[in-house]
Design goal:
By secondary structure, this protein is of the alpha/beta class. The protein is built from twelve helices and twelve strands. The radius of gyration is 19 Å and the shape is globular.
Length: 394
């Protein structure tokens, strides 16, 4: 039996699953949930759109691996509809508030997955991360968000948002558990064309790169929090991040927004009123790009990736604020598109440039808002990057 919980916990949950004792294993007894764009056999997958819902016959391999390792799956969590958004305010199932209250948004699109972990109701959860959805909600709820290298965790059984960039992510209250979950969940799946394997070591000398200039959108508290973290890092190398930000702009201001229509365009054409107006507006903007635009974007992105590869020959780990500022639900409602872009400024380039990332808490500002750092490394540096982030978090 599946219990619908649309109104439960201010929109954190979409469905609950009766708990069953799992097998013995490294995750034995730990309770977890998955974002409701990830399939669980016999449980509806809604992607936060009731008219889109379907009943999968197969559990996504990343979920099955965790169950086989002893973890107990307890439910499916709310999200920004079709994983399109970073605010947590774009769902017909409700808009969760950050665990810190004060009307603060939870962040999205993996809103419910982050809040359920931060509130202590579960031990860890799975989200997805295309533009920052596995890190922004972590930042706004004071927990850890691991965004693995694309392809390490299979996306078979995940509703596509932007298929070439999609990534399954992990939330937990400490880096060690999040990294352990990610390691258990990873691995090639025979019918996954996007699966990848690899390993890259980070130098023991640990040269940190930090931006020579940042925009905190007028938020002095976040600026001071990052300045304090920078001091804790010790000697750092200042780097320009203009090319990273340019790459990030390709996601929602460039032709990659059109990729979302490749999987969702048919549903949107047949059921336009089933899609929230703000989500529909984002998706429809993809229709303005041509094939020529797409190839021009691909060519420019390759140049930006080459620049990023050169950057990581001079530093080992890049450190940025996860978000430049936080917003309340009222502030997001006043400018839903603009506020969303602000939240993704330091996250949305990551998958385009093929980086791994770990977001960790960085204390609180004087006005009671959470601050967060993200550690970035090259593709396949996941294991070493997690150790770096865990050491800092301790």
């Amino acid at each position: 039996m599946i219990l619908s919980t649309i109104d439960r916990m201010n929109g954190v949950w979409i469905s609950m699953i009766p708990e069953r004792e799992g097998p013995k294993g490294p995750l034995e007894g730990l309770r977890f949930a998955v974002k409701d764009n990830i399939d669980v056999a016999g449980v509806p997958t809604t992607a936060a759109c009731p008219d889109f819902a379907y009943l999968p016959e197969r559990t996504a391999p990343v979920v099955q691996r965790l169950v086989d390792a002893g973890a107990v799956l307890v439910g499916k969590t709310n999200l920004d509809q079709f994983a399109t958004g970073l605010t947590g305010a774009r769902s017909p199932y409700g808009a969760p508030e950050s665990v810190f209250g004060g009307g603060l948004i939870s962040g999205g699109s993996s809103s419910g997955s982050a809040v359920a972990v931060a509130s202590g109701e579960i031990d860890f959860s799975l989200g997805t991360d295309t533009a920052g959805s596995g890190r922004v909600p972590a930042a706004l709820n004071g927990i850890v968000g691991v965004k693995p290298t694309r392809g390490l965790l299979s996306t078979v059984g995940v509703v596509p948002a932007c298929r070439s960039l999609d990534c399954v992510s992990v939330f937990a209250r400490d880096v060690k558990l999040a990294a352990t979950v990610a390691m258990i969940a990873r691995g090639l799946v025979p019918d996954d064309p996007w699966g990848r394997q690899g390993e890259r070591r980070i130098s023991g000398s640990l040269v940190y790169g930090v931006p020579d200039e940042l925009d905190f959108f007028g938020d002095d508290g976040q600026a001071r929090a990052f300045a304090g973290a920078r001091q804790r890092l010790g000697d750092v190398v200042e780097v320009g991040i203009g090319p990273l930000l340019e790459a990030g702009d390709l996601l929602y201001r460039g032709p990659w927004v059109a990729e979302r229509l490749a999987d969702l365009g048919g549903f949107l054409d047949k059921h336009p009123e089933s899609v929230l107006p703000v989500t529909r507006a984002v998706l429809e903007s993809g229709r303005t790009f041509t094939a020529t635009d797409a190839f021009a974007g691909m060519h420019r992105l390759r140049e930006l990736r080459a620049w990023t590869e050169r950057l990581f020959r001079t530093i080992d780990v890049l450190v940025l604020p996860t978000v430049g500022t936080t917003w309340t639900h009222a502030e997001v409602a006043a400018d839903p598109i603009g506020r969303n872009l602000d939240l993704g400024r330091y996250t949305q380039f990551t998958n385009l440039l093929d980086l791994a990332a770990v977001a960790v808490p960085n204390g609180m500002t004087a006005d009671g808002r959470p601050a967060s750092l993200t550690f970035f490394g090259p593709a396949f540096s996941d294991d070493d990057l997690a150790q770096v982030a865990a050491a800092w978090h301790r």
